[in-house]
Amino acid sequence: MYSTPDEPARDDLDDVRLLDLDVEKEPPFLRAQKRVPARRSSLSRKTATRLLWALLAIAVAAAGAVGAASLYHYGEHSWRFSLESSDDIEMAGLSNVTRGQVMEVMGGDIGRNVFFIPLDQRQKQLEQIPWVESASVMRFSPNRISIQIHERTPVAFARVGSKVLLTDAGGTLMDLSSKKKYSFPVIVGMNTGEPLSTRAARMKIYNQLVRELDSGGGNYSKDLSEVDLTDPEDVKVLANDPEGEVLVHLGSSDYLDRFKIYVAHLREWRQQFQKLESVDLRYERQIIVNPDMRGVERQPALSTAAVRAAMSAGVKPAALVNREPAKSPPVVVPKAASSKPAGKTRWHKRWTPAKHAAVKPAPHTGAGSSTSKSPSKPQKPSPAVMKGQGTQ
């Protein structure tokens, strides 16, 4: 029970043993430590990268959509994009088209947002104006509209009913211009009830007539007051002359050659006949002087205001007068004689009564007619009069 002197030594021995045990726990050589297994993800690294970019793209698209929606809302409701007055509408190319005609189309858009104005629809409406051949409508930020007008080019006057209008090469009818004076002939034979295709066909004949008369430097079209297109097979022109206008039948072809015959022998006919009203040049072997004018329809009378407006626009007075059919009988002249030089040709009158009885012509009175006791009314001679018939 009592400690002995050997006990401290025993305690020291135990301490040494414990130290030895600790030294034995150390491994004799170094070993790699065992790795702890980590938990792996179900997505590959490539897939994760793609998902990241997709999420980023969605975020950018969402931000863009929000920005676009905000911008749209701003553009829709902001006063900066409102068409405040007609001063915000720029117009170019106006000559015969008035600003008021354009504003009749565009006036309803005043106060409207420029982004909601249907430009295509307004363009079509502007092209319904007779003088407008084509139009373009453009939008400029923030609140301006620009309109460019290309007007039609008139080529003739047209007497339609009780009015005189202008027409282009395609047959579109337009009101008279108060800004420019023209020197066109007046076309007779059109009406507002016929379709545009019919008027276009008539204008094709007129264009061909003018081209032929003006070819070779002749410029004979400037001598015409009126062109009657009622019968496409018998185009009639009213030619100007200081001694009185003459109605010339040109048929449906060879307009220039036939008109040259009229020009070459007009003075002869003036000397031969007291009153020269018309000449029919349609037939190959004869010329009919002062034929009946049953093919010329009487036009409706023009009002005083219409006559003044037509004359202000350049219509020749002769085209505004209604002509009555010729009262004197026609006279047939052999066409072969028309080829002789002026001053050497001797024209002979010939006409056939209704019963085709041979009647001796009365002495020349200068009126291109003869007197007879026969009660029958003279008729237009047959176009089959042979070459040389009617000469002495």
Task: Provide a concise account of the structure shown.
The chain is α/β, with parallel strands linked by helices. It has helices at residues 7-25, 45-77, 99-106, 119-126, 196-214, 255-272, 304-313, and strands at 89-92, 132-140, 144-151, 154-160, 163-168, 173-174, 186-188, 224-228, 235-239, 246-251, 278-280, 286-289, 331-334. A hairpin with a 4-residue loop joins strand 5 (163-168) and strand 6.
The tally of strands reads 13
- The name of the CATH superfamily of the domain at 154-339 reads Cell division protein FtsQ/DivIB
Report the β-strand fraction as a percent range: 15-25%
Q: Compute the gyration radius: what is it?
A: 50 Å
Order of helices and strands: HHEHHEEEEEEHEEEHEEHE
Inertia-based shape: elongated
Major β-sheet, in short? 10 strands, mixed
Q: What is the CATH T-level topology of the domain at 154-339? A: Rossmann fold
Structure classification: alpha/beta
The separation of the N and C termini measures: 195 Å
* Average pLDDT: 77
Which class of the domain at 154-339 in CATH terms?
Alpha Beta
**At CATH's second level, what is the architecture of the domain at 154-339?**
3-Layer(aba) Sandwich
What is the percent of helical residues? 25-40%
Q: Would you identify the regions where 5 or more consecutive residues have pLDDT less than 50?
A: 337-392
**Total number of helical segments?**
7
- In the sheet with the most strands, the strands line up as 6-5-4-7-8-9-10-11-12-13
